[in-house]
Amino acid sequence: MQSAHPIIQPFLDYLKFEKRYSKHTVISYETDLVSFFDYIVTQYGETPLDQLSHIYIRSWLASLKDQGLTAKSINRKISSLKSFFKYQLKTGIIRQTPMAKIVSPKNEKRLPAFVADKDIKILFDHIEFPDTWQGKTERLLLLLFYNTGMRLSEVINLKDSQVNSSNHSLKILGKGNKERIVPIGPEILHQIKNYQKERNDLIAEKTDLLLVSEKGKALSPRSVYSSVKKYLSLVTTIEKRSPHILRHTFATHLTNNGADLNAVKELLGHSSLAATQVYTHNTIEKLKTIYKKAHPKA
């Protein structure tokens, strides 16, 4: 499908075929760029790329702020424009980027929510999972999210061949086809092996996917969401009860227990440390709480 603004298309093709970004990511870029060029055409008429100065961009960003967009949303749009104009520089369409004078607004600091240690303990030690195929699948699903910090898509697409029993690890295929190795303990490995054996006995149609429905099909993102929400609702009152919260919980529990931030970065499959540093804030909050409880002068 061609974009409403033909100038955008070569950049989207570059993201898709050279950078190998996911369909979802490419659509996000397209949405931001179409919104920008719609604004430019409406306000200023057709304007050649090399005539788009920082003034045009500031005008668009001001209009977004007036619409009530958060700093986080505006920063994402700035990031899309930066990548777009960087590509135009690379291909020689423009000689300088109008983004050089654009300052990103400060994000409101929001600490990632996570499930408390005691609630995780209740979930796996005291909550009854039904003795059905769905119950067994849901329990292993939750164990994998919490013990590995995997993303939703990574868990759904996890294959038997990615489980390394002798090395006690999983080889995870992450964003941009980046591979990472995540260690797993003997207990969860034992659970995986039991599940694989039962799956092979129960489902006639052979599959290379680790987690499957009763019909031997891949789990749908929607069913995974509802399973996670259902069980987290039994143990926690935090507002968000999604698979991503278990990824936050994995990272927060690691940093709170003294794990090196670079190691957490590798385990999560983050491309830069900046994305991982948000978890240090939770550690600082925990230290403040300990200080207040323990220090006589606090």
Secondary-structure map:
Blueprint: H1 9-18, H2 23-44, H3 54-66, H4 71-90, H5 117-125, H6 133-148, H7 152-156, E1 163-164, E2 169-173, E3 179-183, H8 186-202, H9 221-232, H10 243-256, H11 261-268, H12 273-276, H13 278-294
Antiparallel strand pairs: 1-2, 2-3
Helix pairs in contact: 2-4, 6-8, 6-10, 10-13
What can you see in these coordinates?
This protein is mainly alpha-helical and 298 residues long. Helix content is 56%, strand content 4%. The chain has 13 helices and 3 strands; from the N terminus they run H-H-H-H-H-H-H-E-E-E-H-H-H-H-H-H. A hairpin with a 4-residue loop joins strand 1 and strand 2. Helix 6 runs antiparallel to helix 8.
Describe the main β-sheet briefly. 3 strands, antiparallel
Principal-axes geometry comes out as globular
Report the count of strand segments. 3
**Share of β-strand residues:** under 5%
Secondary-structure-derived class: mainly alpha
Number of helices: 13
Radius of gyration based on Cα positions = 23 Å
Order of helices and strands: HHHHHHHEEEHHHHHH
Note poorly predicted spans.
none
What level of helicity do the residues show?
55-70%
Major β-sheet strand ordering: 1-2-3
Summarize, please.
This protein is mainly alpha-helical and 298 residues long.
Q: Main traits of this protein?
A:
3 strands, 3-stranded antiparallel sheet, globular, 298 residues
